[in-house]
Amino acid sequence: MQIVLISGLSGSGKSIAVNVLEDASYFVVDNLPAALLPQLVAHLRSTGYKRVAVAVDVRSGASIAALPQQVEALRSIVDDLRFIFLEARDDALIARFSETRRRHPLAAEGVSLEEAIQRERDALEPIAELGHRIDTSDLHANTLRAWIKDFINVEASEGLTLMFQSFGFKYGIPMDADLVFDVRCLPNPHYDPRLRPLTGRDPAVIEFLEKIPEVGRMAEDIRLFVANWLPAYVRDNRSYLTVAIGCTGGQHRSVYIAEWLARRFRDNARVIVRHRSSARRAMDRDAAPPPA
Questions:
Q1: What is the C-alpha separation between 37 and 18, in angstroms, rounded?
Q2: pTM beyond 0.90, yes or no
Q3: 156 falls in which pLDDT band (50, 70, 90)?
Q4: Binding site residues for GTP, as ranges?
Q5: How many domains does the chain have?
Q6: Range of 236's domain?
Q7: Nearest to 175 by CA among 87, 107, 255
Q8: Does 292 map to a domain?
Q9: Which positions does UniProt annotate for ATP binding (predicted)?
Q10: What residues are designated binding site for ATP?
């Protein structure tokens, strides 16, 4: 039996995640009181369900505090349990609530939207580290859908899932990063007009960067650091580790090194690669509504 748990901040995209899983033929339960999770799983196992998705969030009230213990108990009886925690910066959440004119579930008389968001962050802090965190601040809805599909399509196995994520410092450090490496000191292909519109996945940019000895040394140093410390994260019972590689715009150097690292680790770990710069450019081009 595979169970995907979904949680996170209001306005961070939980409804999109739920819809993706429903479209993927999961049996979906939305807004389940956290206290009922063990009974639900026991019932669905006994009736033969194989793929189940459950959304649990702050609307559960005080019972959400028991979720870490419930998840730990479920891991011992379920073949494949995955946890997605969605979050976003305050400014992104405020903009989404303003655009949709929806009421925050913790809003009350005399409580501002900013205060409600902070109260929700505080209430969910104990469960944010339970699984795979996704910062949706700069994500187009279609990008979030694709990332959720990647997450559920990764082959299930024991051990840790390693994610390499490129980003641009000028847009801020991703909230979901566990390790952050700054590669802005490397020569920037942006200043070559021929390479400027390309990315670190294009052959011309790869050729440019591979000719620079410092790029190879930086990439190898990051590889050694991750390889040396990865066993410690595994011993800490971490299911996911996000390694963020940042350059100025998140288009050339960070993309190249994230892809380079992913190739080196793919034979020994479950690996996912994401490029936030692509998501950011999609948002800049497309005025479609953000995740809700």
A1: 16
A2: no
A3: low
A4: 57-60
A5: 2
A6: 161-287
A7: 87
A8: no
A9: 8-15
A10: 8-15
